[in-house]
Amino acid sequence: MAKQTAGRDQLGELAPQFAALNDDVLFGEVWAKTDELSARDRSLITCASLMSQGLFPQLEAHLRIGKTNGLTEKEMVAMITHLAFYAGWPKAWSAFSLVKNVYEEEAK
């Protein structure tokens, strides 16, 4: 996985400690520990959690990360369909439009 700099890029001046924790601990240590969970599996889990909570701006970013980590559009659709029964139908509707946008970018 590529070195994460989004925290520092977006929040480095405003919240430098948070940015460092995001980039160095969350992504630099937790996400990098692939002997326990692969980056692909972490992406699927993260996307499921964000969709369940209705955190759609973060979900869109993690859909892109998941796509980079090898998750297919078909897998994302299956995950959302499954979670629709547990997390809510409206959340699934919202998540599908994000998946469509993220995976259609490739075709353009």
Tally of helical runs = 6
Helix content: over 70%
CATH class of the domain at 34-107: Mainly Alpha
Give the CATH architecture of the domain at 34-107: Up-down Bundle
Strand content: under 5%
User: Helix- and strand-based class?
Assistant: mainly alpha
Which regions have little confidence, pLDDT < 50, spanning 5+ residues? none
Average pLDDT, all residues: 94
Radius of gyration: 14 Å
Spell the H/E element sequence. Answer: HHHHHH
- Seen as an oligomer or otherwise, the chain set is single chain
Per DSSP E runs of 2 or more residues, the count of β-strands stands at 0
Q: How many strands, what sense, and barrel or not for the largest sheet?
A: none
Gross geometry: globular
Task: Describe what this molecule looks like in 3D.
This protein is mostly helical and 108 residues long. The protein has a domain at 34-107: AhpD-like (Up-down Bundle). The protein has helices at 6-11, 16-30, 39-53, 56-68, 73-87, 89-104. Helix 3 (39-53) packs antiparallel against helix 4, helix 3 (39-53) runs parallel beside helix 5 and helix 5 runs antiparallel to helix 6.
In brief:
The chain has 108 residues and is an all-alpha fold.
Spell out the key features of this protein.
108 residues; mainly alpha; AhpD-like; 6 helices; 0% strand; globular; Carboxymuconolactone decarboxylase family protein
Sequence-ordered SSE layout with sheet pairings:
Layout: H1 6-11, H2 16-30, H3 39-53, H4 56-68, H5 73-87, H6 89-104
